[in-house]
Amino acid sequence: MKYLPIFVDIAQKPCLVVGGGDIAYRKIKLLLKANAQVHCVSRVFCGGIAQLAQHGTITITQKDFEVSDINAQALIVSATDDKVLNAEVSALAKAANILVNVVDSPDLCSFVIPSIVDRSPIVIAISSAGKAPVLARLIRAKLESTIPNAYGKLAELAGNFRTQVKAKFSNIENRRHFWEKVFSGVIAEKVFSGKIGEAKRDLQIQLDESTDNKMGEVYLVGGGPGDPDLLTFKALRLIQQADVILYDRLVSDEVMELVRRDAELIYVGKKRDNHSVPQGDINQLLVDLAKQGRRVCRLKGGDPFIFGRGGEEIETLAENSIMFQVVPGITAASGCSTYSGIPLTHRDYSQSCRFVTGHLKDGTMNLPWDELAVEQQTIVFYMALKGAQYLAQQLQAHGMRGDMPVALVEKGTTLNHKVHTTTLDKLPDLVANENIHAPTLIIVGEVVKLREKLNWFDT
Ligand code: SAH
User: Fold this and answer.
1) Does 25 sit in the ligand 1 pocket, CB within 6 Å?
2) 131-153 pLDDT, tens per residue?
3) 310 CA: nearest ligand 1 atom
4) Which of 128, 173, 203, 449 could form a disulfide with 136 if both were Cys (CB 3.0 to 4.6 A apart)?
5) pLDDT at 69 over 60
6) Does ligand 1 come within 6 angstroms of the Cβ of 19?
7) Which residues are 355's β-sheet partners?
8) CATH T-level assignment (fold) for domain 1-113
9) pLDDT (tens digit, 9 = 90+) per residue, 195-245?
């Protein structure tokens, strides 16, 4: 992050604008929105600036800029078309530790003025650190069209109740839950439709009826295979409202970027053969956290109910009468095959598909090989990288042909997505010779061949 985003209180503070043209005028209007005390120095002034001065809204001096003009200023904007003068103003301001912005010259600035979405008291500032102002403006346009104007009114209403709500809830999380309910429920809807009086009354009722101690709940959320765009809306909403997130190594960094900034993050990852947190402890931790009144998100890679032990986790919750929700995610088989251009079924090549684990509870790979080693079927092996050699042997021993196409999808759908294709008889050599990293999914079946034509992602 090149600049620290902060909002500065400049109300009644002396702010100097050097330059009297249209751009200076725009900056002055912005400073006035924040109630700055603006003084403008220039040889000539545009009509807008002259008018503001006439009304006494700002003061102006018609003269060349002088060194002493910067004295006692809180902030300076230089908006002249004289590059030498702009540089001089910048150097003087920086030497005196006064915040300075030189229009269109990021190098001369000690602060930049962002693109702004104004729903006062809510203000959203967007900056590209001078790298792509047009992109920042596009983002602004998007936000302008998606954030209703009435958000400002909603924030005003909340401001009026802030002290009362603070007094009612001793616990900061209960306070947040209360506000989240207000902002996403009927009260907000009433504000958006202009019924401020009703909204105010309902808010008071809701506050009076709330209690300070609450039971928490658990969200068991499927985080998908890696690409954050593959999250569901519901997953995104819940990971952004949880107070605590329990996650493991299968959840991608990009997905973790989307969790609430101030959520507590607890890593409960398990490495194969190195169980860092035993499953029983995770189950119990979920119960304990919910009993403390917290909203807990158990975030898992892929889908929680597909080789994710999600069932065991919520079983303990159910036994303890903890409320929970489960959000399905895109499972590795679906994400990895799609991003590799391999349809799991195809009318000509495969009429069924099986998801199989290569790592059984007792550590063996005792699978119904006869049922697997058949034509016209796709088999997707999860957790089978270590057992690749064994599964290749077993499938062939049970009649599958050695030239059956196989794909290994490494870190599927992420920026490091990599696909290795081979045939069943050559699978052991491939795994032995290539440096393949977990997580890897193995797809066996005629459909793998379609990748030659259908690959669209890592071309
Ligand atoms: N619940 C998860 C699966 C957990 S089992 C899901 O629905 O996807 C863990 C196995 O999933 C890994 O050993 C690997 O075989 C597979 N896997 C998960 N994410 C993957 C990814 N991004 N790329 C390749 N394989 C993945």
Assistant:
1) no
2) 888 899 899 999 998 888 899 99
3) 1
4) 128
5) yes
6) no
7) 380
8) Rossmann fold (3.40.50)
9) 999 999 999 999 999 887 777 899 999 999 999 999 999 999 999 999 999
* Six token digits for residue 384: 């089978």
What is the fold of 217-330?
Cobalt-precorrin-4 Transmethylase; domain 1 (3.40.1010)
Distance (Å, whole) CA 347 – CA 57: 75
pLDDT class of 261 with cuts at 50, 70, 90:
confident
Which protein residue's CA is at the shortest distance from atom 6 of ligand 1? 302
Q: Which of 248, 300, 303, 411 is catalytic?
A: 248
- pLDDT tens, 262-312? 899 999 986 555 666 888 999 999 999 999 989 999 999 999 999 999 999
For the chain, what is the mean pLDDT?
A: 94
| Residue whose token pair is 């039971």 | 215
Spatial separation of the C-alpha atoms in residues 328 and 303, rounded to whole Å: 5
In this structure, which CATH number among 3.30.160, 1.10.760, 2.30.30, 2.60.120 belongs to the domain 116-147? 3.30.160
Atom of ligand 1 minimally distant from the CA of 305: 1
Q: Taking the model in full, what pTM does it have?
A: 0.76
Ligand 1 centroid vs 383 CA: distance in angstroms? Answer: 7
Q: Can you tell me which residue has the tokens 């809830």? A: 169
DSSP 3-state assignment of 380?
A: strand
Interior/surface letters 128-165, b for 16+ CB within 10 angstroms, e for the rest = beeeebeebeebbeeeeeeeeebbbbbbebbeebeeeb
pLDDT band at 103 (very low <50, low <70, confident <90, very high): very high
CA 343 from chain centre, in angstroms, equals: 29
Among candidates 303, 302, 338, which has minimal Cα distance to 226? 302
Neighbouring residues of 137: CB distance < 8 A, sequence distance ≥ 6: 115
- What is the four-CA torsion angle of 398, 404, 410, 414, rounded to 10 degrees? -130
- Across the beta sheet with 352-357, the strand order is 352-357, 377-382, 440-444, 405-410, 418-423
Residue 270 bears catalytic tag: yes
For 210-300, where are the alpha helices, taking DSSP H only? 233-241, 253-256, 279-291
Q: Which atom of ligand 1 is nearest to the CA of 414?
A: 22
The rounded Å distance from CA 440 to ligand 1 centre is 7
